[in-house]
Amino acid sequence: MQSVALEDQIRQIVRQEGVDFFGVADLALARAEITRQGRPMIAGYPRAVSLGIRLFDEIVDQLPDRDNRAVVVSYRTHCYDVINDRLNQVASKLAGELQRAGYRAYPVPASARADDERICAVFSHKLAAHLAGLGWIGKSCLLVTPEAGPRARFVTVLTDAPLQTGEPLEVQCGDCTECVDACPIQAFTGRNFREDEPREARYDARKCEAYFKAMEAEGKPAVCGMCLYACPHGGKP
Question: Within 13 A of 29's CA, how many CA atoms are on the CB side?
């Protein structure tokens, strides 16, 4: 299948599945970090198709009241579980289309931890979205889009299909530290993102892990998202 026809088919799937963000990343810029986080097989793909779905502002805007169980249930259901399921479904369909066209395709599960030691997935969906030109990685390590700020979730399909790639956006956080200041456990260092730096230079995932475990031990709802809520690039359009 010609690459143009293939991309048209992919875009049709994306529209049908209600995906809000679509782009293709050239992974060469971050090969070393991809290898370090995943493994040589993961780093062997030259491109990544990035797909994102926007979260519901009405639910995210309630996060400061996250001690309320109704807020937690709404957020976990409709801004986490359901959207992750939708992303995984469309990634599977897209990967099938790529494979039928004769290309390698590896759908990376949405929000699925593969390494308990480093507390991370086998591949960074946010990195792929950034390299695809869908947004930039902020000081909170969240992908910040021009359209919705960090209020979106992403999934990735790794491939060798010759799809047209996007260009990474410049970081637009400037001197803003809203997400850093909003973190209840000060898990962020405030450094701007760089492709050649590990996540640990900006974010202490163990602090987040301990914070959630402490909430669960106290019988409190284990939801935070304050960095997501606080970003001035998010909010209602």
Answer: 15
